[in-house]
Amino acid sequence: MGQEQQPGRRTVLGAAAVLGAAGTGAVALGGGTAQAAARPSARTDGGGQGHRSLPTPAVVAHRGASGYRPEHTLGSYQLALDMGADVIEQDLVPTKDGHLVCRHENDITATTDVADHPEFASRKTTKTVDGVKFTGWFTEDFTLKELKTLRAKERIPKQRQHNTLYDGRWEVPSFEEVLQWADKQGRRRGRPVWLHIETKHPTYFRKLGLGLEKPLAKLLRRYGRHEAQAPNFLQSFEPSSIQQLGKLVECPRVVLLSGPTSRPWDFVEAGDPRTVADLVKPEGLKWIAGFAQGIGPTLDLIIPRKQDGSLGEETTLVRDAHAHKLVLHPYTMRNENTFLPADFRKGDDPNAYGDAFGAFKRYFETGIDGLFSDNCDTALLAAADFRADH
Predict the structure, then answer these.
(1) What is the C-alpha separation between 238 and 258, in angstroms, rounded?
(2) Fewer CB near the last or first residue (10 Å), C or N of the chain?
């Protein structure tokens, strides 16, 4: 079925990007403080297969279409959807008054204009989050109403100067606003909008009395996204957060995995000596499969980079994870040279695009089930090419 549809899909991708640019203007309704919730949608994938109904490899829009719009904004999410992304990611952090908002980090210094607001100057502070010190402004020191006075901006303006055109255009969205947006877009399109939802620093926030899991589960239930076939994944770098969510909702859950020598922060807090290198061994994957349906490893755990930055030999992680019936959604592909493996870079400009299609092909050939990308239009074309050839 997929191969027959690919030519049509590829033809419209360019037009979808144009539509996305126009479509982002239509999401202003989600920009204000959340109004009464839209009618919740309990629709699943329609086929009763949940995440198994997604195309393989699936394209996950990393923080939305973050290669083209400031990340975690309704503009970024809308453009990703208009481009045809299979799944769209949200990272969740709490506000002082317990609302969940979409930011990659609770430190909002680089992703909002908070530094330009003199009324919040006194809230600049230094905190230690998961063992790392940060100085800036943090969501847990703001109410949702206060956060709504800020505007989002491009996080890495030196690499993505073109994204700065959209600085100040969108607010920081609450997760409930995203659910309302997804519900409306799903009804408009006649199919659900898939989401990939991450709990950020759950142990840190739990200690502040701002636990993420119960408020997240409550919202998922309110919008009919809590069942096993629901059109969303839940993800976290802390396995205990995934375990807690598994007691509250039934939707598919994914354990994120960083570098091999790192330890999940909940392991550090609990004195668990295991590292990611232990978790990607067959016995570690068996343990994860006891409470999760997938893993989200860094791409270097799939194909490590050699000392010169080029790709080395593939590991057995894909095969081993599939043996335990775990899906793999590794992260993150970006088109710019600075982020690509050395053997796929072009020219000397670190911010210019390299051979992203070549890199996608190499990763897809490992048998992964999906991949996070900042440039979902590129990823979709690469996935279509791959499916056509296989």
Answers:
(1) 11
(2) N
